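Bumping my old thread because nobody answered last time. Still need a sequence for this structure:
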């Protein structure tokens, strides 16, 4: 367990930190991934000892950066970053004091989007206008509005742009979660949004999502590689999900490993999402359900072939109804 987890799980719980999110126009020279890795190396050198956590996003020619930590350390680092020639036009879109939401020093994300830098700029400016007019957002809501806003036409019918149900799907083996999102996209004629996340030490993971209208409700279904569950950025968004869907394997060890990852991610949450296990046979639920119960998590189950998205969704979809939308 590293210092961040200790702080998050025990003594530091409830600690109030300064939280800042800003957007800036990237002046990319060379590959963006290499550039982000070099920023990561600097950040791990300077931020970690100062107790500052950062999540850095690159999307459509823009960086978005979310920083949390002791106010003086955040300001000091921001001052240095502001003069970096790798970006310009810095715009602060969020400042608050509150609990630490990033449970580790570094996360980064690259979102593939068909947007131009101009589109992104329009979104940054629109959000800034709302913030300046007194609208209050949490750092995750700001991040979502900049990076992954709800684009479904159904969103125009609702007042709150961020009010939609979010469901995370992880498979114990293989990539069935991603196949489910692909299948939903084909069925709804919608585009999959593809992202890569990485933490402080290499190993990037994929996470794809699709927005859809299901029985009059707007729903975002997010496939996440199981080893992405530990990333601070993933964890910061977990409280926003109504359910974590587990596509269980025939292999009990693989299921147990997935449960360990899921439980360690959900355990620190005050109001964790419900678990929803899908397995080929009822027998496969026994261990995950017992583990969930031991840790006080709701566990609902259904039987379907997890390699078969249509059958899976048929079982899954009614179990998602009537749940929290936030
Ligand atoms: C978008 C962006 C975000 C950055 N974030 C950080 C950061 O959080 N911490 C940091 O030390 N450097 C960050 N940097 C890099 C700094 O501007 C600067 O290059 C670096 O801190 C210099 O330290 P070094 O010489 O030890 O690498 C960032 C740069 C950019 C373009």
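Sorry it took so long. Here it is:
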């Amino acid at each position: 367990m590293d210092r961040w987890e200790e702080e998050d799980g025990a003594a530091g719980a409830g600690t109030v930190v300064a939280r800042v999110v800003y957007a800036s126009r990237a002046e990319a020279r060379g590959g963006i991934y290499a550039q982000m890795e070099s920023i990561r190396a600097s950040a791990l050198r300077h931020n970690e000892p100062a107790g500052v956590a950062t999540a850095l996003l690159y999307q459509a020619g823009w960086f978005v950066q979310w920083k949390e930590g002791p106010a003086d350390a955040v300001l000091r680092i921001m001052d240095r970053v502001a003069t970096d020639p790798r970006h310009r036009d810095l715009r602060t879109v969020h400042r608050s004091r509150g609990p630490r939401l990033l449970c580790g020093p570094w996360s980064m994300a690259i979102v593939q989007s068909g947007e131009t830098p101009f589109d992104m700029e329009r979104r940054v400016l629109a959000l800034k206008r709302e913030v300046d007019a007194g609208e209050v957002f949490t750092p995750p809501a700001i991040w979502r509005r900049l990076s992954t806003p709800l684009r479904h036409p159904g969103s125009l019918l609702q007042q709150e742009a961020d009010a939609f149900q979010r469901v995370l799907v992880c498979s114990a083996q293989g990539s069935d979660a991603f196949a489910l999102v692909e299948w939903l996209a084909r069925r709804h004629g919608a585009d999959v949004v593809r992202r890569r996340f990485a933490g402080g030490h290499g190993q990037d993971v994929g996470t794809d999502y699709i927005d859809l209208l299901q029985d009059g409700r707007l729903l975002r279904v997010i496939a996440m590689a199981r080893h992405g569950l530990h990333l601070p950025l993933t964890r910061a968004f977990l409280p926003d999900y109504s359910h974590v869907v587990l596509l269980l394997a025939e292999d009990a060890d693989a299921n147990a490993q997935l449960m360990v990852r899921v439980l360690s991610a959900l355990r620190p949450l005050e109001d964790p999402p419900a678990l929803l296990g899908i397995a080929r046979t009822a027998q496969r639920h026994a261990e995950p359900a017992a583990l969930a119960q031991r840790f006080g998590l709701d566990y609902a189950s259904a039987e379907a072939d997890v390699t078969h998205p249509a059958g899976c969704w048929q079982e899954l979809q009614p179990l998602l109804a009537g749940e929290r939308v936030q």
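The chain is about 35% helix and 30% strand. Let me know if any region looks off to you.
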